[in-house]
Amino acid sequence: MVAMKTAEVGNLIEFRDGLRGIVEKVNENSVIVDVTYMENYRDLELEQKTVVNHKNYQIIE
User: Which end of the chain has fewer CB atoms at under 10 Å, N or C?
Assistant: First the structure.
């Protein structure tokens, strides 16, 4: 089994059908992400921050 790389604070990640955000905090099983990075986050009626499990994202940069 290949170990998945865990995001770090400041990483840009993509999750759930193309949503993107900046990692603000890394927890044991998840990250807290600021989705205001996306210009259209208000149009999508999202909260400013969300929690994403480590299994459910890809690191973009």
Answer: N
